[in-house]
Design goal:
- The protein is an alpha+beta fold.
- The chain is built from 9 helices and 21 strands.
- About 20% of the residues lie in helices and about 30% in strands.
- The protein starts with 18 loop residues before the first helix and ends with a helix.
- The relative contact order is 0.14.
Length: about 375
Amino acid sequence: MTQTDDFGFGTQIRKSPYFDATVRWGAKGFSVYNHMYIPRDFGNPEQNFWNLVNEAILCDVAVERQVEITGPDAAKFVQTLTCRDLSKMAVGQCKYILITNAEGCILNDPILLRLAENHFWISLADSDILLWAQGVAVHAGMDVQIGEPDVSPLQLQGPNSGLIMQELFGESIMDLKYYWLREVELDGIPMIVSRTGWSSELGYELYLRDGSKGDQLWERIMAAGKNHGLKPGHTSSIRRIEGGMLSYHADADNKTNPYELGFDRLVNLDMDADFIGKAALTRIKEEGAKRKQIGLIIDCDPLTGPNTTFWAIKQGGVEIGKVTSAVYSPRLKQNIALALVAADAAVLGAEVDVVTKAGVSKATVVERPFYDPKKQIAAA
């Protein structure tokens, strides 16, 4: 019996192939994401942030479940699900996409991987897109097969991640371009690796294709990173908010449309292909979005952790929106936040009031992302 056999709430919440390894390496707390446990606590979250931005961290993100779509009509079907034009997506390429419903609102903001001409993985944020895709397929009249493969990603992120990848796979791995993937094998362990990640730092995702080898893979990577400062870690709320990266259910949900988030570039209304939500998004674009995402600097004592409720935003005593994600950035030495407000209130430099758990604080509307706005670090 392992030390983790008695952990959790029963078999309805799944453990990842790396679960026991993360506990051995210091995971102290978990949350649930896509019906699975995800490590959220390896000690001090500020130290986790500095480990990420200065050296490297390894994160168990097996909760990023894959929806696998194959069959003669796979490419056509995937295009039906997303408002982003995929007509030029090459085999071996990855793309950040939005999956929209008939109202033009966002059901998920995953990474799409194209493994072959008619073989796709949708690497999910936290919502049940497997069920959505299978439901759409029932009446789509297309020849596709949809399921969840035995695939469990890890994220290796930070400035030293490239050096660690060289230790594992050799110099040739450095040819892997940003948002591209490669099929590899490591000590008999089958994987897909991609130059992607949820950190806004240089990074890679390693998609294990055999869950029985999860413990072996984790230990192999940690050993390769020993001389490069690699630490076990968790996805950093500090860094992802600095980078303006969305967290689904916080910064977006199935009542949020792409135009509210400034994702115009991901909505291609002029393509010939139809997709779910096209008519609604055409109407929203013509009428203009009623809300806009903004960045905020909140003037109060340093926040001791991320917000766990949506904080009301007021202007002149009138509620105009909500803070969706807030955190203290030790690098910027400021409380930073992502928020959704009425479109006419999204004015740079405007002052608003934020109702935090400690009371009412002044805040200023600013540009986001807060750090490295052109994503030069991740794409380098």
